[in-house]
Design a protein that fits this description.
DNA polymerase III subunit chi; PolIII_chi_sf; DNA binding; DNA-directed DNA polymerase activity
Length: 158
Amino acid sequence: MSDGGGAEARPEFWFYHLERQPLQAVLPVLVEKTLARGWRASLRFSSAERLDAIDTALWTYREESFLPHGTARDGHADRQPVFLTLEDANPNNAEVLFLLEGACESEPERFVRVIRLFDDADDEAKAIARDEWRGAKAAGRPVSYWRQEESGGWKKFA
């Protein structure tokens, strides 16, 4: 990992509470910021349908740019700066893991940062996020909670 600094043993857990924009609008921006840091990203889903929808969204979210990414169908995970997957693995040696829907991570130490995005309208997703928050805090891991402001920007609440 390129910027571990000891983070491998204690990854940061960031929680993004989606209240104003849908996942397909928020996720590409966060992935862009991850790539701008020189980090790779893995996006983990619990359904192939959502993975396919986000795959399309990453190619088309802005006319003037695209986010280079791939899936298992594309192969060569090790060459992908952003990899979309259903598997509990880190095939592209990503520093950042985005957990979406009900996807979970069995070995968070594989990453510098684990990011859970959850929709306010999804009670199951909120419950998963709460459980992960409690687990990360109990393990002594650094946690951050972000909520979207009316302007569309993010504000850190914890």
